[in-house]
Amino acid sequence: MLHSAPYLFNSTQAQRNYTALYFKRKGARDILVKAVNKGCIDRVQAFSK
What we know:
Layout (H helix, E strand, L loop, with lengths): L4 H5 L3 H14 L2 H9 L5 H5 L2
């Protein structure tokens, strides 16, 4: 599952959006929290339903 993690931190905005959606669907909240804390994605993108 974490093979997609680099896209969440080092990619275009569109790739980060798709990767965030992937992790949301997998229930990987911890990786989303890290991405929000690093400023890669915003809270709405990470935790909206």
